Amino acid sequence: MSRPSFFYRNSLSIVLITLMIISLTGQFFTGWKTENKELIENGQAALKLNEYIYSGHFIQATFENWESEFLQMLLYILLTVSLRQKGSSESKSMTEEEDVDREPVAHPKAPWPVKKGGIWLSIYKHSLSLAFAILFLASFTLHFYGSLKDFNNEQMMKSKPLVTPLQYLSESRFWFESFQNWQSEFLAVASLVLLSIWLREKGSPESKPVDMPYDETP
After folding, report:
1. Which residues of the chain have pLDDT under 70?
2. Dihedral of the CA atoms 84, 86, 89, 90 (nearest 10)?
3. Own/partner long-range contacts of 78-83 (Cβ < 8 Å, ≥24 apart)
4. Contact status, residue 186 vs residue 192, Cβ threshold 8 Å
5. Separation of CA 186 from chain center
6. Which terminus has fewer CB within 10 Å in the chain: N or C?
7. How far is Cα 93 from Cα 213, in angstroms, rounded to an integer?
């Protein structure tokens, strides 16, 4: 039997990353036009493409969304360690111990931190949540920076005083941007957890087998 092609072996990540790049490109160009329209209406010079990359408008819009995605994944990973949902394909078994719960054992094909042991193994056991925590904090920081920069640009157009980072932390605008995205991410995950109890998608690992009873947790 021939080995599957590179694309077949990596098709899920390739398609998702391609869709992300297409969407980010669409966001960039439509955001550039939107921002320039507002600048021109306020008597300001339009931004060139390379200038828009560094604008608060683009940075805020991009990392505001990334921040919520990474927060969603971080909390989902951590909550599914100990919490359960009867009948959901997204939940661990209600009674049985699963492979992910057992202590790692060093073997020839094990990742190097498992073979190394000690502090490296301790970190590796939580490396997925740590990675998402770092990505969330980085995105949160960049979202804050972009939002502050965009807010101060608007203040200048209105001939109003600029605000400091500390002052902006108390502004409702920044937290509104965050909370409006956070709530939608939590709703999306909750919908998947609950809908997978009763609904099915044949062939998807996110679904239970089509003939599995509603109250069984895979």
Report:
1. 1
2. -20
3. 78/129
4. no
5. 11
6. N
7. 14
The SS3 of residue 11 is: helix
Distance of CA 176 to the CA centre of its chain: 18
| 58: Cβ contacts below 8 Å, ≥ 6 apart | 28, 31, 32, 35, 52, 146
DSSP labels for 188-200? HHHHHHHHHHH--
pLDDT for the residue numbered 39: 95
Closest by alpha carbon to 87, among 204, 197, 7, 198? Answer: 197
CA–CA gap between residue 82 and residue 86 (Å, rounded): 13
Q: What is the reported pLDDT for 218?
A: 82
Q: Work out whether the CA dihedral 35, 72, 210, 215 comes out positive or negative.
A: negative
Q: Which amino acid would we find at residue 3?
A: R
At 97, which amino acid appears? E
Q: Which two tokens stand for residue 208?
A: 């239970």
With CA atoms as reference, report the closest residue to 51 among 31, 67, 24. 31
Instruction: Compute CA distances 140 → 21, 47, 96, 187, whole Å.
Output: 21, 25, 38, 20
The three-class DSSP label of residue 163 is coil
* Structural tokens at position 103: 């202590």
Q: Give the C-alpha separation, 46 to 183, whole Å.
A: 34
- DSSP notation for 49-84: HHHHTTSHHHHHHHHHHHHHHHHHHHHHHHHHHH--
Residue 142 Cα to chain centre, angstroms: 14
Q: Residue 198 has which token pair?
A: 């009763």
List own/partner pairs for 34-41 with CB under 8 A and 24 or more apart.
Answer: 39/157
